[in-house]
Amino acid sequence: MTYSYVYHLNRLAGTIVNSVPQLDEAGAANKWAGTKDLKTVGALNALYASRNSGLNQGLDLQGILNAFAGTTGLGPNEAASRIVS
Fold it and tell me: Quick one: residue 70, left, alpha or beta (phi over 0 = left, psi -120 to 50 = alpha)?
């Protein structure tokens, strides 16, 4: 079964209950990133910058998910599925 990147953002945020994501994509991204009220891509870029000495490349959704996954060129769903934490 292939899960969407929204499912995986909830997985990373710890907000899966009975296999059901509890937050929308922005909510899950903000929870995982420890940010508040940012759009999905903004929250993910902020988390990436905090983990990489302030390096924020302003990546799009596909790019930032691939950066977290340590991959390139994968679609959002596949890249998100490879992110460990």
Answer: left
Residue among 19, 16, 18, 20 nearest 32 (CA): 16
Q: How many CB atoms neighbour CB 73 within 10 A?
A: 9
User: What single letter denotes the amino acid at residue 11?
Assistant: R
Alpha carbon 39 to its chain centroid, in Å, reads: 11
Q: CA-CA distance, 22 to 49, in Å (whole number)? A: 26
Mean pLDDT by 10 residues, the chain (85 residues): 94 97 98 98 96 85 97 97 95
Q: Annotate the chain with three-state secondary structure.
A: CCCCHHHHHHHHHCCEECCEECCCHHHHHHHHHCCCCCCHHHHHHHHHHHHCCCCCCCCCHHHHHHHHHCCCCCCHHHHHHCCCC
Residue type, 64: I
